[in-house]
Structure formats: C-alpha cells, structure tokens
Specification:
Blueprint (H helix, E strand, L loop, with lengths): L8 H20 L3 H13 L10 H6 L6 H6 L2 H4 L4 H21 L1
Helix pairs in contact: 1-2
Length: 104
C-alpha cells in the first residue's frame, strides 16, 4: 500500500535504526530489545550531516547530558551554576530559529 503524502523519511530512519542494531548485535551479541534504547539515544544525539545539529537539539534547544555525566559528575555538571539558567532560556528562545535554519 502506498502513501503519497509520505516522503520516505520514516523508511530511511527505520533503515538507520536497523543498520546500527545489526552492527551492535554482530559486535556484542544480545537481544535487540535490550540494545534499542542505546541505539535510539545514539541516533538522537549524533550530528546530522545536512543540518550540522542533533535531532535532540532541534527538539529541546540544547545539548543532551549523558546520564553517566550526572552520576560521575563531569566537568559540565560540576561547573553548572545559576547563571546557566539565563543562557538556557536564551537557547530556548532561539530554538525556533535553529529549527528554521535546519529546514533550509
């Protein structure tokens, strides 16, 4: 069944997910269900060639903090201060502009 309103983006994304899953399963083994969350995180936080920005940044307007950075307290987490709130609010104000640039 064909969907004329689709542009094949879902199929391309599904192929990427499957390609990374196959690579991880071939390399490390295990169940694909266990690997799926890390594969999705990888795809969401990797810079895309066409936009030079991650999908995570397009949605949330900022860089992702990897969970291990919080538990191990990386430099980024240790040097967080209340002044960052102002910077974060500015990033959120500019997220629409960032999305518009990615569309172009």
């Amino acid at each position: 069944m064909a969907y004329p309103q689709g542009n094949g983006q879902a199929e391309v994304t599904n192929r990427k997910i499957l390609r990374v899953l196959h690579a991880r399963l071939d390399h490390m083994g295990g169940s694909w269900v266990d690997k799926l969350p890390s594969v999705l995180w990888y795809l969401r936080t990797t810079l895309k060639e066409g936009t030079d920005i991650t999908p995570f940044q397009l949605v949330y307007g900022g860089e992702a903090v990897v969970p291990v950075e919080v538990t191990v307290e990386s430099d980024r987490v240790q040097h967080y201060d209340d002044g960052n709130i102002e910077q974060r609010m500015m990033e959120l104000d500019l997220v629409d502009e960032t999305r518009a640039k990615a569309i172009v």
